[in-house]
Amino acid sequence: MWRAGELSSKTCLSDIVKFATVMDPEAAKTAKESLDLAFHMSNLLNTGLDRHTLSVLIALCDLGLNPEALAAVVKELRSEPVSSSSAPIRKP
User: Fold this and answer.
1) Domain residue ranges of the chain, discontinuous segments joined by +
2) Which regions span the lipid bilayer (predicted)?
3) What is the Cα–Cα distance from 49 to 74, expressed in whole angstroms?
C-alpha cells in the first residue's frame, strides 16, 4: 500500500486508482478478505458503517491519515442534521 512518505501534493485519485488496478491477484484477494473481516467486526460493534464507507476510511488510513482524526470527522458528520436539499426552498 501507499505510505505517507510516498504521497505528495501532486498525488491524486487517478494515481491511487492506477496503483489499485495493477495489484496482483493474491494481494487483491488478501485486501478483499481483510475488508470482509473489518466489515464483519464493524457490524458486530454496531458502527453503522457500510462496506464502501469502511473501505474509504481504511484507504485513508493507508494513505497516512490519522485514524483518530477520521473517527472524529465521522462522528461530526453524523451529528450534523441531514438536509434534503442544498438549495434553499423558495416560497411563491
Assistant:
1) 13-78
2) none
3) 10
